Amino acid sequence: MKIRAAVVEEIGAPFRLQDVELAEPERGEVRVRLVASGVCHTDAITRDGDMPLPLPGILGHEGAGVVEQVGPGVTSVAAGDRVILGWPSCGQCRNCLDGRPRYCARTGEALVSGRRFRGEAAGTSAYTRGETGELSGHFFGQSSFATHSIVLADALVPAPDDVPLELLGPLACGLGTGAGAVLNETRPEPGSSLVVFGVGAVGLAAIMAARSTAATTIIAVDLHDSRLELATRYGATHTINSSGADVPAEVRRITGDAADYAFECTGVIPVVEQAAECVGMLGTLVLIGGAPAQARFSLDHLRTLWGKRVIGVLGGGSRSTKFIPALIDLHRQGRFPFDELVRYYGLDEIEQALADSRSGAVVKPIVRMPQ
């Protein structure tokens, strides 16, 4: 069938709406009519060549929509079901079998190969364009900057009827990543202290989540006073404007020693190294933000040897089918008010959405699909 999609032709090129041909769902797949998709920093860095998706291609990885057609063998969902598009995984590697599909051994292939990574049609793309042939698709298993998507059925999460569907896609990546880094991957102990570097969508989600833990000191670090005001609203007990500040010294002043956890949400290497200086013995540096591929950072060996931990977090950990419904419940209870961070755009306004996110004018852009 013919669909509309925002296509990136080459590294650094703008998103352009084009007609694209979408294949029928294969065994284990479904076709989803997308309602909306969050716009994430990962989309921007992939367009700029910092993640290895072959171009031209279709990005977008925070989609939500309605199932239109199921492929052979699919019984878990049916046409008409409201769904959130989660991350794909192989289901067979050690981490998948241990209940950790975010860390699937084939994650790189599943997210950025541009092709189906498993099943009878593995190695092919469901997206083609005229005489030029296949386009890269299946970005994070979905390529949701389009009116329709081919998705693995086992990556879908049922969406409730009482929450706007257009709101829910970002729970699968940006918002879920920040919240999951706190709730799934670190679980701060009573009385602990944490510092969040970069309070955009991911960092603010981490702060909202931290408010639901027993952490008693929650420090937000950012360049924008407007973002720091939001951080205070959503749970930060202290803020630091990092412009000209000695952030590690300020953290030591606030905590009396060092933070127990530092969540690095920017992917900016000097900030990563600064965050590492904010945690001490038995402290944990949590890497969340997406840096360019092949980026490197340095740590003081001796101070790291003395019990400092460094962990990376993909997508917030946990399983989408378990964690996303929990976040929706927290939202219903007023404990995770992520809807207040959102501004909506049309799919043809995606460049403006990215620009507004980059400037700090909006925390979480979501593009609505033409119907």
Q: Estimate percent helicity.
A: 10-25%
So, the CATH homologous superfamily of the largest domain? Medium-chain alcohol dehydrogenases, catalytic domain
| Backbone CA Rg | 20 Å
SSE class: alpha/beta
CATH T-level fold name of the largest domain: Quinone Oxidoreductase, Chain A, domain 1
Counted by DSSP, the helix tally is 11
Question: In summary, what is this structure?
Answer:
This protein has 371 residues and is an alpha/beta fold. The chain has two domains: 2-173 and 317-368, Alpha-Beta Complex (Quinone Oxidoreductase, Chain A, domain 1); 175-312, Rossmann fold, CATH 3.40.50.
How would you explain this protein's 3D organization?
- The protein has helices at residues 41-47, 94-97, 107-112, 174-183, 201-211, 225-233, 247-255, 269-276, 301-305, 320-332, 350-359, and strands at residues 2-8, 15-22, 29-38, 57-58, 63-70, 82-85, 127-129, 133-134, 148-152, 156-158, 193-197, 217-222, 238-241, 259-264, 279-287, 309-312, 342-346, 364-368.
- By secondary structure, it is an alpha/beta fold.
- Helix 4 runs parallel beside helix 5 (201-211).
- The model has no long low-confidence stretch (mean pLDDT 94).
